[in-house]
Design brief:
Layout lengths: L1 E6 L1 E4 L3 H12 L4 E4 L6 H4 L30 H15 L3 E2 L4 E6 L5 E5 L3 E4 L2 E3 L6 E2 L12 E2 L12 E5 L3 H12 L3 E5 L14 H10 L3 E3 L3 E5 L3 E6 L2 E6 L2 E4 L3 E2 L2 H6 L26 E3 L14 H4 L1 H16 L1
Parallel strand pairs: 1-7, 2-3, 2-8, 3-4, 8-19, 10-17, 11-12, 11-17, 12-13
Antiparallel strand pairs: 5-6, 6-7, 9-18, 14-15, 15-16
Helix pairs in contact: 1-8
Length: about 325
């Protein structure tokens, strides 16, 4: 299908920051569209069922619409309800379950954007795709076995089973504690010598106490070397250890689609952290008219940007586009 409209702004990603960009574009009278590869706020939808945000509700707000929450911090369900209401309120022009596959700039300065369903033309493009789509793999034998999971949804299926959790960040700690509470025999494999300082402050003492009392076993300064159907090899400071395991939750983090950014012509500062090049005043990349918004701006440094500190990107981007239009 061919779309004949030339949009002032095409936004890739229908998460909170992509929605914030659309709201700003709508306020300024720009002709825009959002293309989202999954459901509305797809990353949040794929969070663990009972996940609680670190941020308070007001820090997750977009479009100056209040986010009411009884608890001190909202959970996944409340956030999904809030962003559905945002969509209802603003009636944003969004196409769900439509993945973008390429972005190319033509000789006229417009962007030709191909999705799996249609072709689009836009004067400006914002990439607000977050970082939750691609796990950081361990690259060990057996990592692709069916009982190895890189995402955690809920603990019920792990009840009364031997579960090995890899990592010491929020997702790993949540999975370990919830699985243990449901009756799982939990072992954690932690690359460093402690639980990460960025773990939610009301959760960190809980897991540390469970480890100290022996309810949850932990191997510090350790890493998995091989996964088999019913057991896992672990490299520890005391040597190699083999333990029985029914499930492996390899919650080792996630990263943006750096290859997609590069295919769009966006440069990165290096090949390790892969932080993309952009103007911090406007969020415009080295490709004129191509902008970044939200967590994707941090490359592999996924802890630098959150909803609460990147909502302002929407105003910065739309202001730059409007200013450029006025000067033409």
């Amino acid at each position: 299908m061919e779309v004949n409209t030339t949009y002032d702004l095409l936004i890739i990603g229908g998460g909170p920051i992509g929605m914030a960009c659309a709201i700003e574009a709508q306020k300024k009278g720009l002709n825009y569209i959002i293309l989202e590869k999954g459901a509305l706020v797809n990353s949040l939808f794929n969070y663990p069922l009972y996940m609680t945000f670190f941020s308070t509700a007001e820090r997750l707000e977009v479009g100056n619409v209040p986010f009411s929450c009884i608890a001190p911090k909202p959970g996944r369900q409340e956030a999904l309800e809030y962003y559905r209401n945002i969509q209802k309120h603003f009636n944003l022009n969004i196409r769900l379950f439509e993945k973008v596959v390429s972005v190319n700039k033509d000789v006229n300065g417009n962007f030709n954007v191909m999705s799996e369903k249609a072709a689009y033309v836009a004067k400006n493009v914002v990439i607000a795709t977050g970082f939750y789509d691609i796990p950081v793999y361990m690259d060990v034998p057996g990592e692709n076995l069916p009982h190895v999971r890189h995402y955690y949804k809920e603990a019920h299926e792990y009840a009364f089973r031997k579960v090995l959790v890899v990592g010491a960040n929020n997702s790993s700690v949540d999975a370990a504690l919830e699985s243990w509470h449901k009756g799982a025999d939990v072992t954690m494999v932690i690359r460093k010598g402690e639980i990460n300082d960025r773990v939610k402050y009301w959760i960190k003492p809980d897991v540390e106490n469970r480890i100290a009392e022996g309810s949850i076993k932990a191997y510090y300064y350790s890493s998995i070397t091989e996964i088999r159907d019913k057991e896992v090899d672990i490299s520890t400071p005391e040597g190699s250890v083999t333990i029985a395991s029914d499930f492996v939750l390899a919650l080792t983090g996630y990263r943006p689609d750096i290859d997609f950014l590069k295919s769009c012509g966006i440069n990165t500062h290096d090949d390790v952290l892969c932080v993309p090049v952009y103007n911090p005043e406007t969020m415009e990349t080295n490709v004129p008219g191509l902008y970044l918004a939200g967590v994707v701006c941090g490359g592999m440094e996924t802890h630098k940007w959150f909803i609460e500190n990147s909502r302002v990107h929407a105003q910065m981007i739309v202001r730059d586009i409007v200013t450029a239009n006025e000067s033409d």
